[in-house]
Amino acid sequence: MHMSDSVPVSRRKFLALTAATMGALVAACGGAPTPTPTPKPAAPAAQPTATAAPKAAAQVKLRKMAWGSDLEKQNIENGLAAFMKENPNITVEYIHVPQDYDTKLQTMLAGGDVPDVFKVGDGPYGDYIQKGAFADITDLIAADPVLGNPDYFIMPWEKNRSTFKGRWYAIGSCGQFICQYCNLDILEKAKVDPPSPDPEKAWTWDQYIEIGRKLTIDQNGKHPGESGFDVNKVTQWGLYFPTSTTYIPCIVNSNGGKYMDMATGRYGLDSPEAIDAIQAIADLALKHQVAPKAAFLSELGMNAWQMLASGKVAIIVDGNWALQDISKMGFRFQAGVLPKMKVVATTMRSSLTGMSKITKQPKEAWQLLRYLNLDDYQIGLCKVGLWGPSHKSLLTPEGVKKWLTKGVHPEGWEIMETVYKVKYGFAFPVVLGNLKAGSVVTSGLDPVWIGQKQAKDVLPDVTKQANKVLDEAAAG
Amino acid sequence: MALALESLRSHRRGLSLGQQEAVIGWLFIAPAVIGFFLWTAGPMIASIWLAMSKWDLLTPPKFVGLKNFQRMLSDDLFWQSLRVTVYYCVTYVPLAMVVAFAIALLLNSARRGSALFRTLFYLPSIVPAVANAVMWQWIFNSEFGLLNAALRAIGLPKILWLQDPRFTMPAVVTMAIWGTGNLMVIYLAGLQGVPEQLYEAAEIDGAGTWARFWNVTIPMMSPVIFFNFVTLIIGAFQVFTVGYVMTAGGPANATLFYVLYLFRNAFQYFEIGYASALAWVLFVLILGLSLLIFRTYTRAVYEEGGGV
Question: Is residue B299 exposed (0-12), middle (13-18) or buried (19+ Cβ within 10 Å)?
Fold first, then answer.
């Protein structure tokens, strides 16, 4: 075949044709970019009482999206199966996104192809609200016979973490807090009492360090502070306090500081209390040598509880959600409240679940969303140790019995749920731009954890920078 | 095929043979052309406009002119990511060039087992990037890692490879060097294409090993070296995975690569407009650098017979 020297179908024509095809395709993919939150008139069949869904009801398909471990996925699927059994007219497809969740969610939102009900972390929650991802569910909650009861959730905590400018866009999935876990075999051998679940018996910071010293041993049996102790040849660490921003707020607030000010919605990490608290956490490894340096566990891709179970670490700080895995590891453990600097404090956080502003089935989406916030669903995940309750009804003596499970929850766990969490837990305000501000804090603190810089040298600047990010996000 | 062409012809009686062939030609390249416009040119053109907008993916974009570009000037993280990327580029590129070339030379001169070693050295570059990063995370682990165990064995203190901002980049570069199998194979192919008679002639003229290397191997290899140099630099400016998987840009932003920062703006900070502007700045940077390098082409590269 030889090259033709005349080109009868001009390039221009061809390009025009291509452009037209492209335009059509793009338009087809575009989705609905201008959501109108019209609460559609209810489908005639759907009634608030779940059991009475008549057969005539049209089949509705919902999609729910969340992240989580395999165990969590299994539990969610069980819960959804129960929901579908109660609501035969609704089929829920569960989209499990264990990684890069926000990337996936954002691209779905951009394409107008949004799951009807989805979960977000409390970090970017404010941003998702501001960008119009969530439907305003304030009125739906108020009108609900169960969720609308002012005594249903733990207040004002639920309101603090779920509302933005006075309106509800999602509901916290559960009530998570931070505590300590210990390996009982190690503690008994060293004649150290385990941390108590009773906040009145919280260790002081000095006691915490002293216990860490007793439990840290090098290969010659020496403890930190003794002559001849070799920090490079430690066979068993006493403590492990993760230096991520999930955990350090507890100690900052315990020292009388404000990790994040509820009233202003800004970081308060430049206060002397915050600086001292963060330095104290770093000093566990750097000065007292009772904890491993830096992120030695996480850099192994290993969880802290695996090191706890294997006896490499005697006491770790972790979330209540770790109980789900710890209780399955087959070793003797006990859990207790965090050590305190001045006052007992723990964070009370969780992801939040809401419904899409552009869902085509707002009625059914709300039905699913409210189901996810009923006791029954919460109980399922509390029983396995993944969640802590966020409903008052589950924190009464009778309520506790519904989820407290032998073989999962260690002795006294319910005291942490009913007293420690409720009385000493604090929430974070819902703010804009917090993912970026959070990464400013994280990267700013990196040199502190390895002793290259002092907390007092970095925090004033880090706080200023992080708050600048928040200010800019608020200004739009 | 012939049948299809025939039927096409019969339907288009009115067209000359040349016209028919043009239609067929366009049809054949249509998938590539449409794909290019839809997935490459389209997004690129869109991103020019986005680079001048404020867009969070969810609400409609707002035109802001050159604000995104102005913002970069005062954005510390932009400069940090640029510094990090340039640091990576100036350490990784020369090292990778030399190491891969040295291995290729050794393999080329090997009498036996060259196929085995070639496979062994190439193997790392087909290991998935994430698996690679996870494995090196173990090697660099401060407590139990292979590297620190080796240091300990010879009585040196342990190094916090992935926690100490001073050591993270050297660690990342070391890991990248390990995966230069691709480069090595290209060098090896080039080496095997160097005509034997040139070496023989040089030998007869009394050239020793070094003289032959400098006056035969290097000039004959210069187009290959040049090619590797250019692609390495472009690749180095686009490095992402290691910062994303292994170090999360840390510690203290010591591995906040440019593209990682771009990605974070686009998909974590709801700043698609700013991310697009960052992408265009990167494009211009790489383009400028490539043009600069190509200007040295005639001086740096020996061409036999006037064409590569």
Answer: exposed
A443/B144 Cβ within 8 A: no
Return the biggest CA–CA distance within chain B: 87
Token pair of B56 as six digits: 């969070």
Strands A60-66 and A90-96: parallel
Amino acid present at B21: E
Mean pLDDT, consecutive 10-residue stretches, chain A (476 aa), reads: 43 50 44 40 42 60 90 85 93 92 88 92 92 94 95 92 95 95 96 97 97 96 93 90 93 96 94 97 96 66 79 94 92 97 95 95 95 92 92 95 95 96 93 92 92 95 96 88
Structural domains of chain B ordered from first start: 2-51 (no CATH), 69-300 (1.10.3720.10)
Cis amide linkage into residue A195, ω under 30° from 0: no
Q: Mutation test of the interface with chain A: which of B23, B47, B163, choosing the one with the most A Cβ atoms within 10 A?
A: B163
User: How crowded is residue B17: how many other Cβ atoms within 10 Å of its Cβ?
Assistant: 11
pLDDT, one tens digit per residue, over B61-75 is: 899 999 999 999 999
Site of tokens 């061409």 = B303
> pTM to 2 decimals?
0.80
The angle subtended at Cα A353 by Cα A347 and Cα A358, nearest 5°, is 145
Q: Find, in chain B, the residue whose alpha carbon is nearest to that of A6.
A: B18
Q: Whole-angstrom Cα distance, residue A337 to residue A305?
A: 16
Is the pLDDT at B48 greater than 50? The verdict is yes
Fold type of domain A178-347: D-Maltodextrin-Binding Protein; domain 2 (3.40.190)
Q: Are B143 and A296 in contact (CB under 8 A)?
A: yes
pLDDT at A29: 43
A27 — contact with chain B (CB < 8 Å)? no
The span from the CA of A207 to the CA of A187, in Å, is 14
Architecture of domain A58-175+349-426: 3-Layer(aba) Sandwich (3.40)
User: For the purposes of burial, counting CB atoms within 10 Å of the CB of A303, is it exposed (0-12), middle (13-18) or buried (19 or more)?
Assistant: middle
Q: What is the DSSP letter of A204?
A: B
Task: Report whether B162 contacts B246 (CB < 8 A).
Answer: yes
